[in-house]
Amino acid sequence: MAKKYYELTPDERLAFLNLADHVKAELHDQQSINNEQIIENYISDFRVPMGMLKAIIIDAHQVNVPMAIEEPSVIAAANNGAKLLNSGGGVVVDMPERTAMIGQIMFNGGNFDTLDQFVRTHQKELFEIAKQTKPSIYKRGGGLVAIKTRKISEDETSIDFKIDTKDAMGANIVNTILEAEVSLFAEFDKQILGAILTNYATAQLVTVSGNVNFAALGGREVAEKIVALSRFSKNDPYRATTENKGLFNGIGAVVLATGNDWRAVEASGHAYASQDGHYRSLTRWTIRGEQLHGELTLPISVGTVGGVISAMDQAKNVLDIVKPKSADELRGIILAVGLAQNLAALKAIAAGGIQRGHMRMQYRALALQVGASPKELPMLVSKLKTMSQVDATKATEILLEMRK
Q: Of 182, 254, 278, 305, which is most buried by a Cβ count within 10 Å?
């Protein structure tokens, strides 16, 4: 009997594809026995370059932060932004007293007041179910924190369960507890749509802030222009989208490197950017005395243990570099990188254009694209920097001339 596709080995799956031998060989060489166990229909690993943000000061401590990203200039910009923030004393993190994930049991067609009263009456049972379902998280000091009935529309209701998952990201913990809680709502069975966590992590709101002296920016005029750009992005969703994308260049690179779910973090961030019905930038820059002051508030759900984090050596190695004492500390570190990333981008725009620095990094990628060897790359990049207009055709011409 023929195997089903998911039952094949990685090499058997590659053989199923119509690939040149050298492509199959390259994909085979990037395979990992460990990663084969993490996803279905595995064929190979897709490697992303990882670089270092060197020594950003967060709550008076220097932290080295690996960043995994393929886009040129991001890590250079993050280091530049970190230096600016370091010059003003570094980044300060404001953390809630207790962070938690939120899970929902969703109802359609029920009466809100009836459901709300049911939840109020059965608080003790709901908390006991959670404790019996996941005793391990209670042993670590976590567990169900609060239950709230929330009216969505005239005939839609959500019962929100706030659950402290400690240093785990917690999706599996929350979903396991929710599925157990559903049994108590048997009389509302026909109205239940489902039970699942939400990635909108509003119980994990973290704020980071930092100051930069005008001299480090290049003068008060640059600072004032950054403030104006920040105000513009609060009013214009076109600018806000680009600014938030740049912010997530930094945030996503750290989230990915630490084995966390960058898609969940970005989705939550974009939802928060739209909380008042108008999409806005997530950072705010103002002038305080003789300094530029920046703040970033974001709901961010990450972990330092459990799930894929514990299964991937790459993630464990990165966490060994960062050395966060807890998931909450990692949240602050990730957002500090985001603030630095945003500052660097705004300074580049305010001080004369972002493309100049961006293109210097793109030249390396272009040199590789046209086939430059590692030995040829420095000279080709140097020549490209002197050109007013650069494209692949021009880069190829210069490379061929070099080889004569």
A: 254
- Taking residue 146's Cβ as centre, other Cβ atoms within 10 Å add up to 14
Q: What is the pLDDT along the chain (404 residues), one digit of tens a residue?
A: 688 999 999 999 999 999 999 999 999 999 999 899 899 999 999 999 999 999 999 999 999 999 999 998 999 999 999 999 999 999 999 999 999 999 999 999 989 999 999 999 999 999 999 999 999 999 999 999 999 999 999 999 999 999 999 999 999 999 999 999 999 999 999 999 999 999 999 999 999 999 999 999 999 999 999 999 999 999 999 999 999 999 999 999 999 999 999 999 999 999 999 999 999 999 999 999 999 999 999 999 999 998 888 888 999 999 999 999 999 999 999 999 999 999 999 999 998 755 555 566 677 778 878 888 888 888 888 888 887 777 888 888 888 888 87
Give Cβ neighbours of residue 90 (< 8 Å, ≥ 6 apart).
56, 57, 58, 59, 60, 210
**Catalytic residue from among 24, 270, 358, 394:** 358
Q: How many residues does the chain have?
A: 404
245 is catalytic: yes
Number of Cα atoms under 13 Å in the Cβ half of residue 372: 26
What domains sit in the chain, N to C, each tagged with a CATH number?
5-36 (no CATH), 50-96+203-353 (3.90.770.10), 101-198 (3.30.70.420), 357-402 (1.10.8.660)
Quick check: 10 and 36 in contact, CB under 8 A? yes
Burial class (CB in 10 A: 0-12, 13-18, 19+), 97: exposed
Alpha-carbon distance of 137 to 339, in angstroms, equals 32
User: What three-state secondary structure class fits 1?
Assistant: coil
Catalytic residue among 28, 151, 245, 385: 245
Dist CA 68 CA 52 (whole Å): 9
Q: pTM for the complete prediction?
A: 0.89
Active-site residue, 376 included: no
- Separation of alpha carbons 95 and 297, rounded Å: 10
The alpha carbon dihedral of 176, 181, 185, 186 has a sign of: positive
Catalytic pick among 181, 243, 261, 329: 261
